[in-house]
Inverse folding.
């Protein structure tokens, strides 16, 4: 996996979370909208808007963040310099990355469960 594999614009397909209790939820709703962009210069920017639906959050929920990115093994690390959710600022968000055809899946485990976010190349 190289930086060049990431470079480009990706549209959000889905965000699913498996909770510690084993329940699958859609925290940004059943049809969220968003993009993640990786640049040749080594920066990334992500924007995700929830739609409510079956998810646990309401319509209008919005997450945006950006900063440099680095690679480590099978993971991409987003070094957050700015974010709509202030606790993200200054953090290193590690995501396991998988490429399949024109798709990119980013996954991470947090206290609320295992998050899997699917993207397709635009």
């Amino acid at each position: 996996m190289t930086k060049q594999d990431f470079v480009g614009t990706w549209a959000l397909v889905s965000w699913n979370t498996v909770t510690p209790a084993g329940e699958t939820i859609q925290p940004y709703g059943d049809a969220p909208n968003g993009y993640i962009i990786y640049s040749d210069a080594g920066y990334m920017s992500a924007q995700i808007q929830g739609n409510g639906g079956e998810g646990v959050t309401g319509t209008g929920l919005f997450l945006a963040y950006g900063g440099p990115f680095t690679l480590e093994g099978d993971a991409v690390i987003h070094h957050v310099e700015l974010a709509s959710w202030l606790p993200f600022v200054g953090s290193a968000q590690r995501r396991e990355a998988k490429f399949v055809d024109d798709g990119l899946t980013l996954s991470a485990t947090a206290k609320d469960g295992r998050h899997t976010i699917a993207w397709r190349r635009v």
